[in-house]
Design goal:
The protein is mainly α. It has one domain (about 30-140): AhpD-like (Up-down Bundle), CATH 1.20.1290. It is built from eight helices and no strands. It has helices spanning about 5-10, 10-25, 30-45, 50-60, 65-70, 85-95, 105-115, 115-140. It starts with 6 loop residues before the first helix and ends in a 5-residue tail after the last helix.
């Protein structure tokens, strides 16, 4: 692949703003499992090999089993996720595929399971990983 722009070098302030959002996500009350499920599922949908590689490794470090990692893309048919995790995965899919909008059903299910602060943190985590996916894919970052 032809060399592409390196955003941190060309627009360091903008890159730092995204890093600050990531730092915020790391300080939230989101569990490590919830964070990694969000990051992996959004990255799968977006086809970001760099982020899938990174976040599946992080998931293992947080004790997520290989089985649960492998089944994320087919979570509806897998009995290894909690009701809360399924709500997070459904919301992640709809926010990532925002052109189809977020249905009232998916949003209300998540709102029923989580308080407003946790729900806000979930949404911000989804938005953040989608930003990272788009940056990595557009600038040609590769999994190694």
């Amino acid at each position: 692949m032809k060399s592409r722009i390196v955003i941190p070098n060309v627009a360091p302030e903008a890159y730092q703003a995204l890093m600050n959002l990531e730092k915020y996500i790391s300080t939230t009350s989101l569990t490590p499992v919830h964070k990694e499920l969000i990051k992996i599922r959004a990255s799968q949908i977006n086809g970001c090999a760099f982020c899938i590689n990174m976040h599946t490794a992080d998931a293992r470090k947080h004790g997520i089993s290989e089985q649960r990692i492998y089944l994320i893309s087919a979570w509806r048919e897998a009995d290894v996720y909690t009701e809360e995790e399924k709500a997070i995965l459904a919301l992640t899919e709809q926010v990532t595929l925002i052109g189809n909008h977020v249905s009232d059903e998916v949003y209300e299910n998540a709102a029923k399971l989580f308080d407003e602060k946790y729900l806000a943190e979930i949404l911000l985590a989804i938005i953040t990983i989608n930003s990272w996916n788009r940056l990595a894919i557009t600038t040609g970052m590769r999994a190694s």
